[in-house]
């Protein structure tokens, strides 16, 4: 296993650059392309592969062991919540960021309970995605989700 990507910065990169290996999982090719475009402009960040459903995500994550997995909820063959549960067992070192159209406090709760570290609504991805990836890569939660955030901030734990 190449241990170089565990360092704070890849060889020759600026000190404040962090290497992050990312797997994108979404059933829509245009969404995968858009997410890739947003992510690959970051110094040292690498989209190592893409998957179109939960089953393909499991196979690729097990083989590639990404640092961060961007995971949609609504997909064919295996939905993102079930995939999240299985991915956390198969590749526990990988952090999972749910990127979904569902701006719902219930869905966010279910995703976090399934093992996701963060939750981003697709309509906010342009604003929140990079910060969310950095946060989950550092094992910190990220849950800005419009309505979901408002509801979770008023919920008593």
Structure, explained:
With 157 residues, the chain is α/β, with parallel strands linked by helices. The chain has one domain: 3-Layer(aba) Sandwich (Rossmann fold), CATH 3.40.50. Helices cover 41% and strands 17% of the residues. It has helices spanning 29-39, 54-64, 80-90, 105-114, 125-137, 147-154, and strands spanning 20-25, 45-51, 68-71, 95-100, 118-121. Strands 2-1-3-4-5 form a five-stranded parallel sheet, sandwiched between helices. 37% of the residues are buried.
Structural class: alpha/beta
- CATH evolutionary superfamily: Response regulator
Q: H/E element string?
A: EHEHEHEHEHH
N- and C-termini, Cα separation: 41 Å
CATH architecture classification name: 3-Layer(aba) Sandwich
The number of strands is 5
This entry's quaternary arrangement is: single chain
Helical content class: 40-55%
Topology:
Layout: E1 20-25, H1 29-39, E2 45-51, H2 54-64, E3 68-71, H3 80-90, E4 95-100, H4 105-114, E5 118-121, H5 125-137, H6 147-154
Parallel strand pairs: 1-2, 1-3, 3-4, 4-5
Helix pairs in contact: 2-3, 4-6
